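Subject: Sanity check before I submit

Could someone independently write out the structure tokens for this chain? I want to compare against mine line by line before I put it in a report. The sequence has 215 residues.
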Amino acid sequence: MTFELLGRVHKELSITGHAFYETILAISELVNRKVQIIRLHWQASTLLQHIDDVTGKVGQQIVAQVSDRLLYQNHPDSVVGVIDQMLTDAISHVQELKQSLIRVDAQIRELKIETAHQDLLSLQRDLALRSGGIERVTVLRGAAATGQPLSALPQYSSAYVAAVLRGPFLLTPTDDLLFRPGDIVVLIGSQTELNQLVSWFTGQRPLTTSLTRSA
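---
Independent answer below. Compare away.
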């Protein structure tokens, strides 16, 4: 009996230690990702400053060339060619900087999406431990929700509308907001009540009880 008890304790400690290690690893990855985002923002800011410096410098050079042309009437007409060459070089340099800025911006967006995905998984896990969940449903034409205000939403003790997405807009969920076909509605609450509420937006009974669903 004693050896069996010690074996169970050892197993529990091993599982707990593994979970602790995974938690530390997840936190480290999150911190590292955020540090990378900060570093990329700094890099983007530096690129923008370089673009400002290039445009400011070429502007000063053009002013200087024109001023010399006005002060000295015998100044050679080659000043036009000089200005044209300066503009060409400046445009080429700015285009290179903008391409670098686009690449940095894409990296920032990718890291932010990864961070948001990790946060969503953590939220889903926290809700699942409490029999809760998140639903992402699309309002279908002919569903009970179509043309109805938010105030007509069937009342439940915990389920509620967290956000409404319409085209490129994020709408505030107010009582007078009318649902339209194609609206994306984000619901949060107990999973049982969410399963019952989904049919109000889709006109169909949910097929699964997953934490996140696209209707």
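---
OP: Matches mine. For the report I'm noting this point. Residues 207-215 have pLDDT under 50 and may be disordered.
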